[in-house]
Amino acid sequence: MYSVVLLGTGNLAQHLFEAFLPVKEIQIVQVYGRNPEKLIRFQQHTNVCSDPMEIVDADIYIIAVKDDAITAVAALLTSKKGIVAHTSGAVDMDAIALKNRGVFYPLQTFTKGKSLNFGHIPICIEAEQAASVQMLKQLGGHISAKVVEITSEQRKKLHLSAVFVNNFTNHLYQIGADICEKEGLSFELLHPLILETAEKIQDISPFDAQTGPARRGDTESIKNHLGLLNDQKHVELYTLFSTAIKKAYEKKL
Amino acid sequence: MYSVVLLGTGNLAQHLFEAFLPVKEIQIVQVYGRNPEKLIRFQQHTNVCSDPMEIVDADIYIIAVKDDAITAVAALLTSKKGIVAHTSGAVDMDAIALKNRGVFYPLQTFTKGKSLNFGHIPICIEAEQAASVQMLKQLGGHISAKVVEITSEQRKKLHLSAVFVNNFTNHLYQIGADICEKEGLSFELLHPLILETAEKIQDISPFDAQTGPARRGDTESIKNHLGLLNDQKHVELYTLFSTAIKKAYEKKL
């Protein structure tokens, strides 16, 4: 049984709280947050506090706050003996100026109000002390089947990859939606294609999954498509992607 | 009951064949293909032919061949009375130089050897004659709950959108895989994120779904990410995407 204090009340904090709550090996002894209003939703389940002086002792402190607040929140815990771990993909472990520090980074996009099954979400662990690595691994293992130990450097690269496959992909969806809207077409027509594109990649590599005019070297279709685009930014993206894809497959032929 | 001749033996032809086969209102009376070897897999289920002179009469001819072969294959059917429809997203209906022409375009990515449920795949219909529109709609309705009539112009724009959300998205997956590989990380770590990104969009708009440094206007994270990228093409894409996302949300603030 681990006692856990959760620091933060935002989107990720809420998702982690929901994931930890039903696990009998994890006892969330407290949720800390500066804004008392945001603590209301937690206080029916556990002790809450907005005064740093009231933070209780626990085995593990999980900091789920904005990147630039991690150092300051960690500084509230200088007198504590438990592990202090942040949950960010982009921040060095050293942002926590404590000896017993670590990272507990769930690699996923968390949408407000949308429940998630943590079962297969990778939890990326890092800690200063070997015993803390083990403890964070066990904590992660209670909510996910995929717990991995990685370095700060690897985590940053993973987070960067996530920006490409998540944030930028979503912007491509936005472009698709814009083109449809201008043509009086429902974006919903693209939903099944979007889903299949993501599902496909669960079984085959992106290299093998690639299709389309650029993959085929079909310059006629590419020319036609460029002629259909009105937005100069879309033309730039179309050209960059097509050039990159063409090159990747020329190389391997 | 409609009699259908399928012209083509490639990936899409096979998927359509599999979708049509169990439908009792559809009788695939023949599959035509130039290469006899590629007909073998069809001939246990229906009549096949590789001689254009042997093509039988049918209510509907579905041409599922490469874009640049559509006109030539349609020309084999000048003496036929049935509807002649191609299945391409990018080709004008006029590529078929026959009076009773149409389009039957399933908007999806078809992977060789991977069965697909057509149930929710949009089938985009177009035809010269009103009666043919109805017949193609009914044909589509037997395999999908989503059959829509759109113009050639709309279809081309839809196909262009599909290139963004499917082909280019897959290239972003490739970039994610490349970054992971260089860092000794398994690309599988990104699988759940990729899937959730696509699933999210089934319920909320891409505009509301957008997250990440550019959305937050977090220039510090953007600078750090650019510093981590080694490939100049990735830097270009990162910058283009981030600028576009930042702009979209500045506008709406």
Quick structural gist:
The structure is a homodimer of 253-residue chains. Chain A contains 10 helices and 8 strands. The first copy, chain A, is α/β, with parallel strands linked by helices.
Our estimate of the beta-strand percent of chain A is: 5-15%
The percentage helix of chain A is 40-55%
Average pLDDT of chain A, to the nearest integer? 95
- Let me know the largest β-sheet of chain A: 8 strands, mixed
Low-confidence stretches of chain A: none
Structural class of chain A: alpha/beta
What is the tally of beta strands of chain A? 8
Measured on Cα atoms, how large is the radius of gyration of chain A?
22 Å
- Ends of chain A: how far apart? 56 Å
Largest interface: A-B, 89 and 89 residues
Number of helices of chain A: 10
Side by side, the strands of the main sheet of chain A go 3-2-1-4-5-6-7-8
What's the topology here?
The structure is a homodimer of 253-residue chains.
Chain A: E1 2-7, H1 11-20, E2 26-32, H2 36-43, E3 48-49, E4 60-63, H3 70-74, E5 83-86, E6 101-106, E7 123-127, H4 130-141, E8 147-149, H5 152-182, H6 191-200, H7 206-209, H8 213-216, H9 219-228, H10 232-252
Parallel strand pairs in A: 1-2, 1-4, 2-3, 4-5, 5-6, 7-8
Antiparallel strand pairs in A: 6-7
